[in-house]
Every structure is written in structure tokens, then in C-alpha cells.
Model the fold of this input.
Amino acid sequence: MKLHEYQARDLLAQNGVAVTAGRVASTPAEAKAIAAELGGKVVVKAQIHAGGRGKGRLVSESETAAMYEKLTTDPANNSGQVKGDRVGGVRLADTPEEAEQAAAAILGKHLVSIQTGPEGKLVNRVLVAEQTDIAKEYYLAIIIDGAQGSPLIMASAEGGQEIEVVAANNPGAIIREAINPAAGFEPYVGRTLAASLGFSGDQAAQFSAIAEGLYNTLVASDASLVEINPLAVTDDGRVVAVDAKLTIDDNAMFRHKDLAELRDKTEEDPLEVLAQDLGVANFIKLEGNIGCVVNGAGLAMATMDTIKLAGGEPANFLDIGTVNDPQRVVNALKVILEDESVKAILVNIFGGMARVDIIAQGVIMAHEQMKIDVPVVMRLVGTNLAEGEKLVEESGLPLIRAKELAEAAQKAVEAANAA
Ligand code: GDP
Ligand code: MN
Done:
């Protein structure tokens, strides 16, 4: 689960990271009031689940694809300022009135950046934060490094909006330090990183405290990524987080009931949200037109491969899980039928612990409860196959039957093409 910058900043602050003061607003008037509270000089920032906002562009919904094309084809178009004539989703304001104007220009528009994809992201909220006089920008992040099996801190003295370019052209400018999770954050890690980045004296101490807070934030929230870019050194020598990004590992959400309310469903794919709400946990929307209902992630992958081999494109990845609950099948079909691009459905079940007759019952129930106006191909194998086939037979439903997966995929592709 991704958080918005304003939410990530709160978690960082709770864990001892110095962040600039700020609050979220959803109207220009609120933005103006917050700016006044903060003394007038602020930065107004679009809150969306994507980065590259400063260099992004605000457009209406109909213009997002063309803008995305423009930003991604020529790097010259993907340049941004926080003040002046090429401002994007991050704008400096020197008075509450300017903050109000900046918010008015951002809210309700779609922000397109190289990270949003061609749809862009509708901006519903802005963060109004205290403006920083930045002397130098650093990059500081922590991730779970799966290969190492430990948290890994990454930092660079060349932070800011060009960090992707630095990573591509000069990877040596990014330093890495693994943290032993059994020992926790040991002070030498902070000192080593601070020295490598060129910090000394009081700033080294400030940096170390921030690095420790970053680690504590990761642990406290079961995050897979926490990123501060830029971590700024101000003109008066303070080290402070000016931007924040945080992703929580979905598998840990069960023990973060308090963080669940930070979820912004408007940022997620509506079909994936529906699937989660209906208990169909493993659903990922894809670009094709063949809806897949499969039990088991491995079988779901194999099914997608076989559809592609047969010349088709899957509309989704879906693993209904090992459940003997016909309602789960109904719910899976409900999600798939919401997808307008679906032209055929392939039900591919290998009944082990899951029983084929219960899956068949689910498909029949779905036909009773909903209008299923696309062809459904069924391939059933495994436990209680005979009982399942009998149910399908007796239902009299126009289900297309197949014995082998290749045959099933072929029939699904033909059915989709014929539609
Ligand atoms: P991003 O583009 O989505 O990563 O958004 P950021 O919050 O990182 O803002 C982009 C850039 O705007 C930063 O790299 C800074 O250079 C600049 N910026 C953001 N906040 C301030 C601020 O308070 N003062 C100044 N001078 N620049 C800022
Ligand atoms: Mn940033």
C-alpha cells in the first residue's frame, strides 16, 4: 500500500525524522489558511501516488495521454521548476494568496509525470508545507533488499529531481549500507553514511539521527520502501526532509489496522479495489480481453502463458485461492464481468484441496445471479471431477468444455475473437 507524501511525513516525524512543517488541504481556501499559519512562504505540492511531480504537467483529463507522450519522448520536455513559467505539481508561494492560486491551479486537474502513466492522476489534495531555503539536496532511502534478506540504506550527495539520471549514468554516486536486522540500527552506520556523503560536525549528527529515524519508520510500519528525496541542507545549516515516499508491505497490513485508514482507494485500479472488497485477494488487471478464473498462482501464470501461446491476451491475473466456497467463484466472475474489455472467460481449475464440484456450483450460481453475456470456457480437472461434470451437464448452461489447458486456451481465444 502506497501512502501520500503528507501521510509519510507524519510517520517519519513520529519516528524522529526532521521534516518541514505542513498540512494537507483539499480546497484553495484551506491552502491559503494553512499558508497564513505557516507564515506565508510555503510550497504547495500535489498529493498523488507517483513521483516526478515537480517536472510533471497539469492538464485536463482528455489531454493526459498526449502530455505523457510529450514528456516521455523528449527529455527536454520533462524539465520543471518550482517557480516561474514551467511550474508543475510542486510550486513555491511567497504569500497566502499565492498559495491559494497555486492550489487552485493544481486541484481538480490531472497531473502527468513520467511516473503516472498515460492516464495521469487526478489531484484531490495538496500539501502546504513551510518553504525551505535549500543549499544542497541529498537522496536517502531504505528498502527491503530481498536478495540480501535485510534492510538496505541507499544515499547520495547528488539527490533531487535528477536522481534517476544519477542512478543510470553514475551508479557509484549512490552509496549502500545494509542493516543487520538482528542488531538494529547501530550508530556506526549513521556515522559511516554521513562521512561518505561529506557531512561533518553537527550536520553529521543531524544526518545520523535522520537515518536512524528512517530505519525506525521502516520497521514500525513494515514498509518495503521509505524514501526522502530531497533530504535538504538549508541555508542556515539544518538537515531536513523536504519530500517523503512510503510503501507498506501489503502482507503486513493485518497488523497495521491503524494505518489501514491511510489507504486512498481513488489511487488504485477500481477493479482491483472491487476484487479486494469481495475477498478475491489475488487479482491484477491486465490489458487483454480474456478473463481468467484460476485456482493457484502458479496455475494462473501457466494459464496466462498458454493464452498467449494460443495468440490471445489475458485480461487479468486471478487466483481465487484454495477455498471450497462457491461464492468466491461468483465474486471472481463478478469482478471480471465489470471489465468492459473482457470478451471471453476461461475457468481453469485444478482441484486438489479445492473441489471441482464446488467450483462448478459457483459457476452455475453466477449464471443464476448475473447476466453473463460472454462465452465461458471451462477446463476442470481433479478432486470430485465426475460430480462437477455432472452438475455442469445438468445445468444446461452454454458452457464451452475443454479437457486440456492448450485446448481450453485455444477455445477461449477463438471465442474472444469471434465476439
Ligand atoms: P517530486 O518532484 O515529486 O519528487 O517532488 P519534490 O517534493 O521532491 O519537489 C521537487 C523539487 O522541488 C525538489 O527536488 C526541490 O528541488 C524543489 N522543492 C520542493 N520543496 C521546496 C522548498 O521548500 N524550497 C525550495 N527551494 N525548493 C523546493
Ligand atoms: Mn522528490
User: Anything to note?
Assistant: Residues 311 and 413 are 7 Å apart (CA to CA). Residues 134-260 form a domain with the D-amino Acid Aminotransferase; Chain A, domain 1 fold (CATH 3.30.470.20). The chain has three domains: 21-130, 134-260, 269-418. The longest helix spans residues 201-221.
